[in-house]
Amino acid sequence: MTYERIPYKAPGVKTQTCPLPMAMETAEVPVFDYPVTPVENFRLAAARKTPYWVPSALSDMHFVSHRMVFADKIGQPPSPPGMPSGTFTDWFGVEWTFVPMVGGAMPTPGKHTLKDVRRWEEDVVFPVLDDYDWRDKLQKFLDTEYVEGKVINFNFGQGITEALIALMGGYTEGMLAFAEEPEAVRAFFDRHADFAIEMIDKVFEVMPFHMYSYHDDWGTEKDTFFSRDMLMELIYEPTKRIIDHVHSKGAVFQHHCCGNITRFLPEMCELKIDFLQLQRRAVDIPKMKQLYGDKIGFNTFIEDLEFGKPVEREELIQKVRKTVDLYCKNGGFFTSFGAMSPELMWDAECEFYAYSREFYDREREEQPAAV
């Protein structure tokens, strides 16, 4: 079956206005005639079963940040127009400086909140979550913004290694701590995992989210920050506890992980991460899909799309189709994209929906009949 590509703002077409994650902009896109709810479709994709269309972070999901729920300055999103500049201090006491060139904030050079990792219990004060009016904020979101049937993606923010690196003032200090004081590092990671699990429980109590997004960068664009031995000794078990706790809630776990972390894909599969959001210029994600797609899913942008470079509509359509062809086989994929003109956002959303429905219709027809 062929599905309609709806012309931009065609008369009579029902639309929805979707906020772009981590930005101050919105996009208007059509409301499609879904055969199942976005949540039901997303669960099929996460289970690496054949969904009905490729889930879209733009139209199928709500993005709820820990920043919105617990505090105003828990790290900063990329810098769209109007976002504040200068320095600020987060809820762990880390000073950050906004860097317009990279579109975000970085720990202020020369500042070391934690100078000696052996003193983390004395020098690091974990936030008391009940000091924030999180219940009211979550309930307000559910009452005024949530659209029934959409996926709720709760964004946790910094993972265990990123938190330590920020506290210590950078990767040089952090990696030295890994090598010289592994017992203290592991103890901090265990405590930070406890903090993550506490937040999961509190948020889920009011807002039963469908996906939990966790940010922990493990590499540079060349290779990983640390060895496999360090991963297994220091990071694996605390991370596994967080993942297992998310799964105990019936939710999906997404790991955002920058850098060339290709060597860690087998361990990430063992951890039972549901979706990886990787840095495309550092990782051959199509190859990872071929090698590990039966064990782990991927969230990517539009393949070959260069941010800031103009693109014509027909070229964009071909890039969307290439993305579907590369990543959609047997589910285990959803897409995120933005930073285009309103009309191109509309066209990309329509093509993802229509082309992937055609793709999955064929895949469903080719599956052997149940006995």
Mean pLDDT figure:
92
Compressed to H and E, one letter per element, the order equals: EEHEHEEEHHEHHHEHEHEHEHEH
Biggest sheet overview: 7 strands, parallel
Shape: globular
User: Helix/strand/pairing class, anyone?
Assistant: alpha/beta
Unreliable stretches (pLDDT < 50, length at least 5) are 75-82
The figure for the number of domains is 1
Strand content: 15-25%
The CATH class: Alpha Beta
Characterise the protein shown here:
- The protein is an alpha/beta fold.
- The chain has one domain (15-71, 105-365): TIM Barrel, CATH 3.20.20.210.
- The chain contains 12 helices and 12 strands.
- The protein has helices at residues 38-46, 66-70, 120-123, 134-144, 160-168, 171-180, 182-206, 228-248, 265-270, 285-292, 313-327, 342-366, and strands spanning 15-19, 26-30, 61-65, 87-89, 95-99, 104-107, 151-158, 211-215, 252-257, 275-278, 297-300, 333-335.
- The chain is globular and about 65 Å long.
- The two termini are 26 Å apart.
Notable characteristics:
12 strands; 371 residues; TIM Barrel; seven-stranded parallel β-sheet; 12 helices; three-stranded antiparallel β-sheet; 40% helix; alpha/beta
